[in-house]
Design a protein that fits this description.
The complex is a heterodimer of chains A (118) and B (476).
Chain A (H helix, E strand, L loop, with lengths): L3 H16 L2 H6 L5 E7 L5 E7 L2 E7 L7 E5 L1 H9 L4 H6 L4 E3 L2 H14 L3
Chain B lengths: L21 H12 L3 H12 L5 H25 L5 H10 L1 H34 L4 H19 L6 H25 L15 H13 L18 H28 L2 H4 L5 H47 L16 H21 L2 H29 L12 H19 L13 H35 L15
Helix pairs in contact in B: 1-7, 1-9, 2-8, 2-9, 3-8, 3-9, 3-13, 3-14, 4-5, 4-13, 5-6, 5-11, 5-12, 5-13, 5-15, 6-11, 6-12, 7-9, 7-11, 8-13, 8-14, 11-12, 13-14, 13-15
Classes of the chains: A alpha+beta (118), B mainly alpha (476).
Chain lengths: 118, 476
């Protein structure tokens, strides 16, 4: 089980990696979304704000009205944000649950694919 | 909201900013089912029936499909995700069988895209004239337009999709009513579904089931609905709408257009439009046909290309299919679908065997409904304690009923060909067998090495980045 401090570290790295990737920023320039994340094992919740492809902020707790809600355990979130797992495999096994439009789900995975191509 | 670990105020609820309501979900389901090829499916039904009795086949098929609505509602409740079909099939029958079934089923999407492109090309060529090869030029033009739109990330918004579907349904309904009201003559054999014999009546039923094909794809929108029950309701309402529209279209077509003109025609809806309102009616139905194709191209390319992308990301299809363009569109998947559809359309154009596509589609669809019955039956035993927001009443009995009835319909459909003088042919079973053999061959012989390569790539691509801590477990 990962505490908020670990998630925070992973998110900080994820934010820097995403925002530093020119191709991703260009690809996602028309994508502005509020994402809510729920850790089902320890109840930690956090929010990410994406504005024109840039992760402008993230914070603990749920803020605003989400476009996407992602639910899984805290360890999976940590590994996902560090790029140590392929989120699609977890999603197709039902271990990551997503609420949101199919287009947004696709975009969310595209982020991982662009910054950490296999 | 500030960066880092600042704690924000909790939002009052977790409702999404934008979500799909009952109207949107119902229209999505109806729009996915009502393709241009449905007009041709009605022609196929007319081949096996007399008078205006085709409506009865549409009704009985609709009632059978309501059982399917119940089955998919239960499965969707178990796995409310766009990946649901993969999850419940894998759980019920194992991964390899699930993948073989899914890949074979996916080919029906390409068939429908190809069929619609062919039928619209033929309809346009019929209206504006010119050499017959012009029809294929139209087909290529339409597919290029559809592929281009997809590559540019153009998608129909939910409201537009609802409007588009409504236009197609209302146009078909109104033209049918006008034809019935204005063309004089009797209505023979309104209940004579089995007048040509029981076997022909059952064959008519097989093609009538195809009229509802793909309505169940609305379950892939499970992650964007306001409440899970929305999908269930849409699955029950959409077949009713489809019955009303397709049923009245079948009656109007049988009543207002001579059988000789209908059989062998790739554009029966234009003939009905002309019978109802002359040139205006024909142009009206041409417009409706093109609008219907927008739905097919939008839904078909989107569903199929995203499935291919996810499969490539998972490592079960070559990684090239996961390549994204700058609009985050899996361009290799989209282009491959477009090329595949163009090739199939070319074969249909050369052989004039468009009714064969209906037959193959009917077999695949009836087959998948039988598989849905098996999944419900199996998962009720395997996943007894899993939460079921929707539990089909008499589910055990109805799942066995679906396996038997739709299994038999698929089997009979595999030998039914309305374009053949005897209405029987080995062509449908041959095409389905080739598709199934290709899927099986891929899953058994090629996929293991594709998967092994993906795993090897992932292992050597980069070292684990997450700092190790006490109590941290590796996942993935």
């Amino acid at each position: 089980m990962a505490a908020w401090e670990e998630l925070d570290e992973a998110l900080r790295d994820y934010q820097a990696t995403c925002n530093g990737n020119e191709r991703l920023r260009k690809m996602q320039k028309d994508w502005s979304k509020v994402l809510h994340f729920d850790c089902e094992d320890n109840g930690v919740k956090f929010t990410m704000d994406v504005d024109h492809g840039e992760i402008v902020s993230y914070c603990q707790g749920h803020a605003g009205v989400p476009d996407i809600v992602v639910t899984t355990d805290s360890e999976t979130f940590c590994d996902m944000f560090w790029g140590d797992l392929n989120p699609v495999q977890k999603y197709l096994r039902g271990e990551i649950k997503v609420k949101g439009s199919q287009e947004d789900v696709m975009r969310l995975d595209a982020i991982s694919y662009i910054i950490w191509p296999d | 909201m500030s960066e880092g670990s600042a704690v924000a105020q909790e939002s009052a609820g977790t409702g999404l900013r934008r979500s799909l309501g009952l109207t949107g979900a119902t229209m999505t389901s109806t729009g996915l089912a009502f393709a241009v090829i449905d007009y041709i499916a009605v022609v196929s039904i007319l081949s096996y029936t007399v008078g205006v009795s085709a409506w009865l086949a549409v009704l009985i098929a609709g009632l059978l499909v309501l059982v399917v609505s119940g089955l998919f509602s239960e499965l969707n409740g178990l796995y409310p995700t766009a990946a649901g079909i993969r999850l419940y099939m894998t759980s019920a029958m194992g991964e390899r069988k699930a993948l073989i079934t899914t890949f074979t089923y996916l080919t029906s999407v390409v068939l429908v895209i190809a069929a619609d492109a062919f039928l619209i090309g033929s309809a346009i060529q019929h209206v504006i004239g010119g050499p017959s090869i012009a029809a294929y030029a139209w087909i290529i033009g339409l597919l290029t337009f559809a592929v281009g739109g997809n590559l540019l990330g153009v998608r129909m918004a939910g409201v537009v999709q609802t409007v588009v579907t409504s236009i197609v349904l209302v146009s078909t309904f109104v033209i049918s009513v006008v034809a019935i009201a204005t063309v004089h003559g009797g209505y023979s054999h309104p209940l004579g579904l089995f007048h040509k014999g029981v076997f022909h009546g059952i064959q008519a039923l097989i093609f009538a089931v195809f009229l509802y094909a793909a309505f169940e794809w609305v379950t892939t929108a499970a992650e964007e609905v306001r409440k899970p029950a929305v999908i269930t309701r849409a699955l029950f309402i959409a077949p009713a709408i489809l019955f009303v529209v397709a049923g009245i279209f079948s009656v109007a077509l049988a009543h207002a257009v001579p059988r000789g003109a209908v059989h062998g025609s790739a554009y029966p809806q234009l003939l009905l439009g002309k019978a109802a309102l002359g040139e205006l009616g024909m142009l009206w139905m041409l417009g409706a046909t093109m609008v219907a194709a927008m739905n097919t191209f939008n839904g078909g390319f989107l569903v199929a290309s995203r499935f291919i992308y996810a499969a490539a990301r998972e490592g079960i299809l070559p990684r090239a299919f996961a390549k994204l363009n700058m609009k985050a569109v899996p361009w290799v998947a989209v282009v491959s679908l477009g090329v595949g559809a163009a090739v199939i359309a070319a074969v249909v154009f050369a052989t004039r065997q468009w009714l064969l596509l209906v037959a193959v589609g009917s077999v695949l669809e009836a087959g998948i409904y039988a598989v849905a019955g098996y999944c419900v039956y199996r998962l009720r035993r395997k996943e007894v304690d899993r939460e079921r927001p929707f539990r089909l009443r008499f589910g055990d009995l109805l799942s066995i009923f679906a396996i038997v009835v739709f299994g038999l319909l698929a089997l009979l459909g595999a030998f039914s060909d309305p374009s053949h003088p005897s209405h029987l042919s080995l062509l449908p079973i041959l095409v389905v067998a080739v598709l199934a053999a290709l899927s099986t061959g891929y899953v058994l012989c090629i996929m293991p090495s594709v998967r092994a390569k993906a795993a090897a790539r992932a292992a050597v691509a980069r070292p684990r980045r997450r700092p190790s801590r006490e109590g941290t477990h590796e996942t993935g």
